[in-house]
Amino acid sequence: MSKSERMNIKNKPDEQREAAKATGQVDGPAQEVVDEPMSDLEQCQAQRAELEDRFMRLAAEFDNYKKRGEREKAEFLKRANEAMAGDLLPVLDNLERALGAAGEADKQTLQKGVEMVLGELRKTLERHGLEAIDALGQPFDPQLHEAMMQQENPDVEEGAVLSQFQKGYLFQGRLLRPAMVVVAKAPAPAEDEAASD
Question: Could you give the 3-state DSSP secondary structure of residue 145?
Fold first, then answer.
């Protein structure tokens, strides 16, 4: 298309110019320059819309994942407690039987029955990860023991556990309850020795 034809098209009224554009009579470098930025802009807008859509979907999926994880965790804890409760039912049954037989049985028979039930309870709890802390004779450990008092004892090394008021327990390797203990301390020097010094 010659320069004069382009000038003629530019001078035509707007309707004719639009018709010429539609039929493809106007083309060339000027038209390409105008179309390119528009197509790039439209392309960027389409990409932006697509990315926004993907982001919204990912955000929704992540939210659903978190909710599902919380539900599964709650369900797991519920089922874990259910299993322990089921394992403790025989112990409960045996305690009820022991109480029912308490009136008929003599003291030794009752004591033997309660000891059997206690052993059964310990085994059940140990299966689930409960472990008693062996404190007697051990050196005092503030991570496992709680000192209730100190007592002089020349026969035992200072800082050793002499006795315990209450047993401590670990549950699956973590401290559940510290052992409440009496700790040995060195005897105070006698008054005669202090006076001679």
Answer: strand
Nearest to 99 by CA among 114, 116, 121: 114
C-beta of residue 190 within 8 angstroms of C-beta of residue 173: no
Q: pTM of the prediction?
A: 0.55
d(CA 109, CA 101): 10
pLDDT value of residue 32:
47
Q: Find out whether 114 and 98 touch, Cβ atoms under 8 Å.
A: yes
Q: Which of 104-108, 166-170, 191-195 has the lowest mean pLDDT?
A: 191-195
**Burial degree of 170 (CB within 10 A; 0-12, 13-18, 19+):** middle
Spatial contact of 181 and 165, defined as CB atoms under 8 Å apart: yes
pLDDT in tens, 80-124: 778 788 888 888 888 888 777 777 767 788 888 888 888 998 898
Residues 6+ apart with CB under 8 A from 159: 139, 140, 183, 184, 185
Q: Which domains does the chain have, with CATH numbers?
A: 1-128 (3.90.20), 131-197 (2.30.22.10)
